[in-house]
């Protein structure tokens, strides 16, 4: 479709509900549970030829970008704002006369410009929203250092240069993206420049497509060639390359590559890929507001992305496999912990969008949008609840656009049945109350590839899985578990309760509770079932199977 969305400034949205709770957990860890001095800062104060960080990459630029975004979105309050100001200032104080900010005392490390890319992004954001002139000058010095040394392309650097060019008005950085990074060329040009990762690597591909969308927005150069990579990206995403949880990437050894086997074990579903898929999907809505993009966003967010963070917010996963728990990542440096933090503080930016004649609601969560001509309040316990209540105060007439998810077959707005997709309604001046009902039946989703012959359970955007501990199941019993879908499912506050069969046990039948995929102790998602008649294809990833 041709409908295009535009983002609102981050300071016009107030957020509550589950998204806000996750943001607060992330901020709490940053402020009170991380030894930032020893984990990050000391390496910049005391440079070394071989810094004591995994792979020579701290991820501190990513970390600071997350901190800036938290402060911009008013998460963590005054404490986060002070923390941001102090940490940016102390990092800028380590900048060399040539502009470098680095942990290396000699030759730059392989990932040095990767870390510096996100420092630039943090500095630019702080200038754009907080007016920090010192941050912009540090970003320009660092950008000039990278250009002067003829830096090669790396993850995040294209976006950093485009942001710096836009913020400073210096076109040299966007020209560098065009002339050296070949950003205006096909995705194949990128593949030739980055043989280590290239387009076989999911996170790399998504970052490149995001940068091309940003380049199109900055230059107005919207061409079929520039859209080519993004269109192929989403062709893959809406197919066997995505798991039921919304995550992408796999591979037995590396775990970060395109993989359509649907094995879902080990190094499957890199957190960085999930974070960047969310970010790129929100950006793509600005060019083509396909409602499936909103469906994708909430599937990834509520399952793969939230599932990569422990329920107390203190741990995170590098990979989030869907048929075993996955391991907690032991470091706070490197990419995944810090990409999770960065993306966490962007989630509220994808709730509301400007449309040519009004406002679109893409995500349902407790929140408020306040702009000069309208205030929209959402009240809901979605995705657990089926009901969303809107209270709208308008100074002039506008069109409200609601995303009706593809999984919902019987949505109701103000007592009227509506179809999946974008639903438009005219909002008059004054105060209006709207009730949206999104009935959530338990869906039995057909597995494919390695999961052929098995099913997964979904309700609304949520994927459900079995916790061994909670159900007092041994590994042997898990291997034999079969869902008896001849019996009704029971939705409870704790999850979905169903009858399962476990052959060779004292009691063949037993009740098993399936809990949300994002629960940190969940194990397996797919199981064989007794009947196939009520099993359906995944409306998001495999509608044509």
Topology of helices and strands:
Blueprint: E1 6-7, E2 13-15, H1 17-32, H2 36-45, H3 60-72, H4 77-92, H5 112-130, H6 133-148, H7 157-168, H8 172-179, H9 187-193, H10 202-219, H11 224-237, H12 271-284, H13 291-305, H14 335-344, E3 352-355, E4 358-361, E5 367-371, E6 374-380, E7 387-394, E8 398-404, E9 411-413, E10 416-418, E11 421-427, E12 430-437, E13 442-446, E14 454-459, E15 462-466, H15 468-471, H16 475-480, E16 482-483, E17 490-492, E18 495-501, E19 509-516, E20 527-528, E21 535-536
Parallel strand pairs: 4-8, 13-21
Antiparallel strand pairs: 1-3, 2-5, 3-4, 5-6, 6-7, 7-12, 8-11, 9-10, 9-12, 13-14, 14-15, 14-20, 15-19, 16-18, 17-18, 18-19
Overview of this structure, please?
The chain is built from 16 helices and 21 strands. It is an alpha+beta fold and 545 residues long. Strands 13, 14, 15, 16, 17, 18, 19, 20 and 21 form a nine-stranded mixed β-sheet that branches. Strand 3 and strand 4 (358-361) form a beta hairpin. Helix 7 runs antiparallel to helix 8 (172-179), helix 10 (202-219) runs parallel beside helix 12 (271-284) and helix 12 packs parallel to helix 14 (335-344). The longest helix is centred in the first third of the chain and has 19 residues, at 112-130. The protein is globular, with a radius of gyration of 24 Å. 48% of the residues are buried.
Overall structural class, as computed from helix and strand content, comes to alpha+beta
Number of strand elements: 21
Contiguous runs where pLDDT drops below 50 for at least 5 residues: none
Mean pLDDT: 95
Give the helix level as a range of percent.
Answer: 25-40%
| Alpha carbon gyration radius | 24 Å
Give the CA-CA distance, first to last residue: 23 Å
